[in-house]
Design a protein that fits this description.
Blueprint (H helix, E strand, L loop, with lengths): L1 E10 L7 E10 L4 H20 L17 H11 L8 H7 L1 E3 L9 E6 L2 E10 L2 E4 L8 E4 L5 E5 L2
Helix pairs in contact: 1-2
């Protein structure tokens, strides 16, 4: 069976909005690869949306389009990419497909935790960085992951 596969290619540079290119190629799909390709395209789009919000101010409880808290940014970004997420960081963790750090990909969610409780979320941009809305007095920005107490989740 021959079908079209959409392979996201991301170029994220500090200080610029990510460039998103979708390369289309004909290929034979193995069983189970279409959902993964679709999930990758959704993740790439969500990452692009989050990057486009660079500089938007943090506001507790806000979920866009011009102000965000951490989970509001991830909710908004994935909604624009065609996927619904619950509102809080903990709920987003509970509903995402958990992946090992060694398997993380650009567009995965990064959950910061203390013990068993998630307190912050961002979108993985690659190279150890995330797009996130940190706290009151800050703006949406690309930042290096600063903690080892993180878990990763994939939106399917």
């Amino acid at each position: 069976m021959t079908a079209q596969t959409y392979v996201p290619s991301l170029a994220v540079r500090l200080g610029t909005v990510c460039a998103l290119t979708l390369a289309v190629s004909a290929t034979t799909l193995a069983p189970g690869t279409a959902p993964e390709a679709n999930a990758a395209a959704v993740a790439a789009r969500a990452l692009h949306v989050a990057a486009s919000k660079k500089g938007s101010p943090y506001q507790y409880g806000a979920s866009g389009p011009s102000r965000f808290d951490c989970s509001g940014l991830t909710l908004y970004s994935f909604k624009q990419a065609g996927r619904r997420l619950p509102r809080s960081a903990q709920q987003q963790y509970n509903t995402s497909r958990h992946v090992a750090a060694s398997s993380r990909k650009a567009g995965d969610l990064v959950f910061f935790h203390s013990g068993g409780s998630v307190y912050h979320v961002g979108i993985y941009a690659g190279e150890g960085r995330i797009w996130h809305s940190p706290k009151t007095g800050t703006v949406v920005r690309l930042e290096r992951i600063w903690s080892h107490s993180v878990w990763y989740g994939r939106v399917g």
